[in-house]
Design a protein that fits this description.
Elements (H helix, E strand, L loop, with lengths): L1 E3 L2 E3 L6 H14 L3 H17 L4 H15 L5 H19 L4 H10 L1 H17 L3 H12 L6 H10 L4 E8 L4 E7 L14 H15 L3 E7 L8 E7 L8 H5 L2
Antiparallel strand pairs: 1-2, 3-4, 4-6, 5-6
């Protein structure tokens, strides 16, 4: 390990925490959250104690990802890339929100999530239901308030989603979306099924009610913006819905 201006700069090849990070990421990608996440919390504490900054952790992540992703079957690369971005976010949590943002914005995982998903769809012709299901699983990787869910969606290059209105009497929410990654080609039909799954699951988690999401306008159809309506599966009011969305 060498030092620069009083702070440790970690050489990935020589530091055992890099190998430990890769092991935990591999477990996480295999859906071993119960084992990986408690160990990751301990590892995050070790980063701070060893004066390892967020830039070194991001480097650990890119190195580990470059070794793990090529070994996966093609159909697993996109879901694994999404999960890896969530893992990086959890690993950086101990450094606070402000240091986290630039590393998520510049990481390979974040830049190409949308591109990977488009390529996966083109190669395997994913049906709409599968895309909804993947979007729903993606939302389960995050926590916090609704603003955090939407921010992470944007940071990973998937598009800009905005909550426009909340109707507590009917449990209805209206979202708009711009530059959503699924609307990259002209179509006669709404295209943002991953986004539908993401919004439905995110609101379900926060509102503690099973929710559905429909896209009522899509940029792929020539609309100026995408519009999504989220409603409860069992119709009825959701008291304090705004407060629930704040986590």
């Amino acid at each position: 390990m060498r030092r620069d201006e009083g702070r440790a700069i970690v050489e990935m090849e020589e530091h055992p925490l890099c190998a430990r990070y890769r092991e935990l990421l591999a477990d996480y990608l295999e859906s071993e959250e119960a084992r990986a996440l408690p160990a990751l919390r301990l590892l995050s504490g070790e980063f701070i104690r060893c004066q390892i900054g967020p830039e070194e952790v991001a480097a650990f992540h890119e190195r580990a990802l470059s070794e793990l992703l090529p070994a996966l079957p093609g159909e697993r690369i996109a879901p694994a890339s999404i999960r890896a971005a969530a893992f990086l976010r959890l690993a950086l949590r101990g450094f606070g929100v402000d240091p986290l943002r630039p590393y998520l914005e510049t990481s390979v995982t974040s830049r190409f999530v949308g591109q990977i998903l488009r390529e996966l769809e083109a190669e395997f012709h994913l049906p709409d239901v599968a895309r909804i299901r993947i979007g729903s699983k993606y939302a389960e990787n995050f926590e916090g308030d609704l603003a955090n869910y939407l921010d992470m969606f944007r940071l990973q290059g998937l598009g800009n989603l905005t909550l426009e209105s909340v109707d507590e009497a009917h449990g209805e929410l209206l979202f708009t979306g711009r530059d959503v990654f699924e609307s990259y080609e002209t179509s006669d039909y709404p295209q943002d099924h991953f986004t539908r799954g993401f919004l439905a699951r995110a609101v379900s988690i926060l509102a503690r009610r099973q929710m559905n999401c429909e896209e009522v306008a899509c940029q792929a159809q020539g609309a100026p913006e995408c519009r999504f309506v989220v409603t409860p599966v069992a119709p009825g009011p959701i008291p304090n819905l705004r407060r629930l969305l704040d986590g």
